[in-house]
Amino acid sequence: MDLRKLQKLVVSALEDIKGRDIEVLNTTKLTSLFDRIVIASGDSNRQVKALARNVQEKVAEAGGEVLSVEGEDNGEWVLVDLGDIVVHVMQPAIRAHYNLEELWAARPAKRRLAVEEDGAAA
Q1: pTM: predicted TM-score of the whole model, two decimal places
Q2: First vs last Cα of the chain: how many Å apart?
Q3: What is its main location (predicted)?
Q4: Residue 13: which of 51, 60, 48 has the closest Cα?
Q5: What are the residue boundaries of the structural domains of the chain, listed by start?
Q6: What does the chain look like in DSSP terms, one character per residue?
Q7: Distance between CA 10 and CA 55 in Å, rounded?
Q8: Considering the domain 3-121 in this protein, what is its CATH number?
């Protein structure tokens, strides 16, 4: 399935079940393992599980393949691996704690700036 089509399908599936704060990160310059990370929040274990399940169902209906799913047991953080796209559905506290957006940022500006300042002062 085409990457753009798959990304649109995933975002739509998350919006269908009222997923919040949906973010799509382009990781093509950071890793060759996958091209996109999609992160969304759900307010409860039940909603997180429902969001992840809806992504799986919509991708399967469209002829796509779900490679694996992790975390469905507790529903705090469910990862859906679609190959080119990895979907993370998390409760807000878990999402804030792990901060995947910063982890996968192309340029963590604060640290890079601090290193450059230290280097210039030496």
Answers
A1: 0.83
A2: 52
A3: cytoplasm
A4: 51
A5: 3-121
A6: --HHHHHHHHHHHHHHTT-EEEEEEE-TTT-SS-SEEEEEE-SSHHHHHHHHHHHHHHHHHTT----EEE-TTT-SEEEEE-SSEEEEEE-HHHHHHH-HHHHT-S--HHHHHHHHHHHHH-
A7: 6
A8: 3.30.460.10
